[in-house]
Amino acid sequence: MTRARAGTPEDPAGSAPGLTPPLSPLPSCPATAFGRPVCRLGLASRGGSSLAPDDVLYALERGVNFLNWPGEADTPGGSDAFSDAVAALGAQRESVVVCVQFGARTATAAAGELRSILAALRTDFLDVLTFYYVERAAEWRALIGPGGAMEYCRAARRDGVIRLLGITSHQRPLAAAIAGSGLVDALMIRYNAAHRGAEREIFPVTDAKGIPVIAYTALRWGALLGPTPEDPPGFRVPRAPDWYRFVLQSGSVAVVLAAPQNRAELDEDLEVLRAEGPLSVQDYARLAEHGERVRRHAGRFP
To answer: What is the pLDDT of residue 76?
Structure first.
């Protein structure tokens, strides 16, 4: 599978029932949750990608203006095509929403990591900073406790160095509780046609709080791009743009992240921006049904 994604253990809570899509804006319509118009298709960096800075800038020219960079929180860490592209933006920096994953868990570590990130990006502010992979309640308590990283980052937010604070997590009950706490401004969570539990566990909370949701793993680590033994006769597996459109069908999702491996995959993903409207009820149902089949047959995350 050429578009396989690395992952984590199988989502235990199951998919949300129902195949009828809610109404939502066009995928290329702006979301206003980040203080400026934002293309709902975002671009994410990941290890092993062959994208160059020119590819990232090309995506910006095509209309993408939300970039997610793992910073120092994930391997291999350090500068890459995304950070180099952001560093080269100059006067255009204000038009791009830059989201960075943050690994620090203490105030002392946060100070050093934030300085390093700002230097690498050649910027004096971050639009969104999310604490990377907060997966346990004890970890969250330490983050927000005395000497925790939240203390330093909230001060940085007051100073305008960070505009929005959030978390990235796979754990929906924990993420929902954090979203409801009033301590975060954004939430990055897994959501795709094979894992729809966010519809019942996350979106009611974030909708009520007005918290933007950034969705990742829209392709279910590539499994949604492959067939299953239960596929009906003549079924053609949908391509990547269809799965991003599936996620964007939810008005609860502000941005869905695409993480193309190369320029060809980037061009394919950017086809989302050519969509003239939401998926039809029939097309949405077809995707949802394949998502259920993938859930039954794809096994555990690698």
So the answer is: 65
